[in-house]
């Protein structure tokens, strides 16, 4: 059972991760998902030939020209990215039943947060105990005269212990949140695979948003797609591929 506060956090995270079609005209689905294999930074959307009839959008490492040695990863246009995703996804569809079975195995494991919840309860009890000790120590100081230097030193120690306990609680709550969000991601992936046909003919925003964690671009023009279940599928782009330079 997730406490109400954590449940609310989970719902917010799920909503944040949900593909929002009404926002796609303002923000590309590739934003914060295309990674440079040289520096590890994100690719960004750039405009080429902005004042001519040949105007087009390309994707390039945001750090490409900010270092002494420019990243050697290629620029990509959106058509090339979309085509590479279609190819990677169709490879996954070739083993569709295998991936469906894998997702079905993952769901109950991700749904079980009982161990984390026990850890959270223990951390909360520890924090409550420490806070009570701090309160009693403060009350004792009001009832009888103490060496204030010694009191302040001990108060600081108790306060530090309380803050560490709070940080432990927050870390466990975050882990529960992430696992719950991960479960929702895998559930959506499973739904998409079940509903998808045997082959994907064209790029689909919803499939991209639900299935892809990231895509890493390497200098040899390999695009490695990381799916939500951890599967990595490399796509080697032809050297003379239009849209890759």
From TrEMBL:
Name this protein carries in UniProt: Recombinase family protein
Naturally occurring in which organism (per UniProt): Petralouisia muris
